[in-house]
Design goal:
By secondary structure, the protein is mainly beta. The chain has a domain at 1-48. The chain is 0% helix and 21% strand. A two-stranded antiparallel sheet has the order 1-2.
Length: 75
Amino acid sequence: MGSEEHACPSCGQPVELVVRRRKTLGAWVPSWVKGPCQNPRCADYVPPAPTDPTAPAEPHADPSGADGPAAPQNP
């Protein structure tokens, strides 16, 4: 891994790397790109997204199984 540091093109402050994904030959591969600038005085500043403490961390499947296919019924 390289030790190069990425910087915001507007203010020059270091920014972190974020991973994106792209599809190549039918497979998803990671692609590391510069993240948003965290300097509030920068023109390219992106405020952090508000976090919702009531939102679940990951979506969960319906325990009743209602989202799955219906079983065939014989008359």
